[in-house]
Amino acid sequence: MDILLVASAFNSLSQRLYAELSDHGHRVDVVLASHGADAVRAAVRETRPELVVAPMLRTALPEDVWRQHTCLIVHPGPPGDRGPSSLDWAIAEEAPRWGVTVLQAEAGLDAGDIWAALPFDMAPAGKSDLYRNEVSDAAVGAVLLAVRRYAEGSFKPQPQSDPAIHVVWRDALRQERRRIDWDDDTTATVLRKLRGADSRPGVLDELLGPEVFLHGGHPEDRLRGRPGEVLATRAGAVCRATRDGAVWIPELRPRKDSGDPAPFKRPAVSVLGPLSVPEAPVPFELPPGRRTWTDVRYRQCGDAGFVTFTFPGGAMSTDQCRRLLAAYRHALARPTRVLVLGGTRDFFSNGIHLNVIEAAADPAAESWANLNAMNDLVEAVLRTTDRLVVAALGGNAAAGGVMLALAADEVWCRTGTVLNPHYRRMGLYGSEFWTYSLPRRAGAGTAARLTAEALPVSAAAAARLGLVDRQVPAPAAGFAAEIDRMASRLARSPDLDRRIAAKAAARDRDEAHRPLAEYRRAELARMREIFFDPDAPYHALRSAFVRRAPGGSARPLSPAGAAPTGIPPTGIPPTGIPPTGIPPTGIPPTGIPPTGIP
Questions:
Q1: 398 bridge partner residues
Q2: CA 275 to CA 249: how far, in whole Å?
Q3: How far apart (Å, rounded) are the C-alpha atoms in residues 233 and 272?
Q4: Do 364 and 530 contact (CB within 8 A), yes or no?
Q5: What is the dihedral of CA 318, 323, 325, 326, to 10 degrees?
Q6: How far apart are CA 549 and CA 561, in angstroms?
Q7: 2-169, what's its fold?
Q8: CA–CA gap between residue 268 and residue 190 (Å, rounded)
Q9: pLDDT tens across 522-576, in order?
Q10: From CA 255, how far away is CA 262, in angstroms rounded?
């Protein structure tokens, strides 16, 4: 069928539905409702869809559109649930199960007839994590069921006036309800409030003077102090005492009226500035039973090692890349035959940290430093020849994060993962050895198409293209355990020594044909031109993205909506050595390491 997706933002769920509906043979177009009712009307007139699907809306569809066309709304709540903060309330009220409902648009908010609904078990995770995983899985299943029912023509949707439907209206969850009482709230209550607002809108609170929004929360088992007191920092996060414990808060966001020139989420310490509290070190390998937060860890099970990392939003700053590289080198010093990179739920990586770059005193210089730190990490993976490296993607990946995964020998993806193996929509040419890894995996022609079209691809499509070796049909809550089992089986494989030897020989042949250093120099020459050109579109695109400024095309996937990158869609770049004068790009000095798209 011809399906038009209408969304306030082309977010993770919208991208996944686009990719999976396309995989099912539907012709899918997208229009952003944030560009106004007229943009939606124009898209409907142009595409003449058989069905309109709205995966994420902050505003109502135009009445003339839903009266003239069947429009299906994806609501992140069970049948009968209504209101704008459904998932927030589910977390606040500790609902053990929740659901997603696909209903027909009508005048009453969330009041339309029900085309499909699927339940899911709630997980002890933040709202954005739940949204990208359990909610997304249920939403895709419900939408595919509703689309099939609509296409068959015989299904009659269930009205919410049916006595079997228990209708509950929930108002927007306001900051008054979210606010933390540090003197009275327990650690469990504080974590619940933080997790219910981790991505949007955050929890408004006073912290060392000004009001800021708190984003994300993790328990701490040892540090203690006066309720509300900042006890320590670690990897850019702050630890704050509760009545009966403490919590780690990774990110803060200044109020827009605070006068801060960077009123967007970024690592907590960078918002607060220098603090007179200790930096709490933590080893890569945590002892059993510890409950503390760190974003990079290493553990070992027999002949399999696991470097896990969880960066808010999936973005990786200069410091985060360097710390992850240090953990990777730590893992290489351990006697394992298989090394797994990733393996946790939610984002794998979205590449460089645009928020930190935008807040920097010199965004061009920080872009350059961040990209080189990312390249150092990817190069270390590519040059590992004494064991097999697996990239285990429990969640989405984009841009340099995809190239980090492709540097591994095998890529394992949870079904439902969405990959964006391109850079153009941020006005970038790309680096992280994409000109080596992407053609090596998919072929030069497909690599050129993927980078020029700049479309999201599902895990299934990525497997067909050669970007993914194994799809893992596990729920988000069970992904890590399944990766453990798969890695242990691989480490016991009798064929493993032969595969490692073949891998080392292939790397030697590739190096003799064209050294990795040459790929790096050629890519970075192009990227340096972009970063240090104040008129390059990258700077305006980055700023608009980070600051959530309106702009761009209402049709994010149409050719007319492609970002004005100034980069011709020629696909694979020239292979010559760039001019002299490009700064050296060797391994940066060790430093304190420190986020992407919801």
A1: 420
A2: 15
A3: 11
A4: no
A5: 140
A6: 16
A7: Rossmann fold (3.40.50)
A8: 17
A9: 999 999 999 999 999 999 999 999 999 877 789 988 643 444 444 444 334 433 3
A10: 9
How many residues in the chain?
A: 598
Share of the chain above pLDDT 70, in %: 93
Averaged over 234-257, what is the pLDDT?
A: 97
Q: How far is CA 489 from CA 394, 493, 501, in A?
A: 19, 6, 19
Spatial separation of the C-alpha atoms in residues 71 and 105, rounded to whole Å = 6
Q: What DSSP designation does 200 have?
A: T
Residue type, 554: A
Q: What H or E segment, with its residue span, contains residue 102?
A: strand 97-104
Contact in structure between 109 and 60 (CB atoms under 8 Å): yes
What is the structure's pLDDT at 535?
Answer: 97
Residues in contact with 108: Cβ distance below 8 Å, sequence separation at least 6, in sequence order: none
Kindly report, residue by residue over 277-308, the tens digit of the pLDDT. Answer: 999 988 899 988 899 999 999 999 999 999 99
Q: Does the global pTM surpass 0.85?
A: yes
**Token pair listed for 218:** 């993790």
Q: Is the dihedral of CA 377, 382, 384, 390 positive or negative?
A: positive
Please name which of 24, 17, 19 lies closest in space to residue 140, comparing C-alpha atoms. 17
The token pair that represents 323 in the structure block: 């710390």
Cα 90 to Cα 123, 172, 361: the distances in Å are: 11, 12, 40
51-71 in b/e burial notation, b at 16+ Cβ within 10 A? bbbbbbbeeebbeebbeebeb
Report the range of poorest mean pLDDT among 88-92, 103-107, 307-311, 583-587: 583-587
**β-pairing verdict for 410-414 and 470-472:** parallel
Task: Return the DSSP state at 158.
Answer: B
**Which 3 state secondary structure label does DSSP give 388?**
strand
Give the integer Cα–Cα distance in Å for 516 and 24: 38
177-272: in CATH 1.10.10.1100: no
Number of CB atoms found within 10 A of residue 32's CB = 23
Q: Which residue in this structure is represented by tokens 């509906």?
A: 21
CATH topology of domain 296-561: 2-enoyl-CoA Hydratase; Chain A, domain 1 (3.90.226)
Question: H/E element holding 41?
Answer: helix 37-47
Q: Do the domains at 2-169 and 177-272 have one common CATH topology?
A: no
Q: What does the block give as tokens for 284?
A: 């890569």
For the chain, give every domain's residue range: 2-169, 177-272, 296-561
pLDDT in the model for residue 558: 62
Q: What is d(CA 155, CA 167) in angstroms, rounded to the nearest whole number? A: 22
Q: List C-alpha distances in Å: 388 to 331, 439, 496, 502.
A: 12, 20, 8, 11
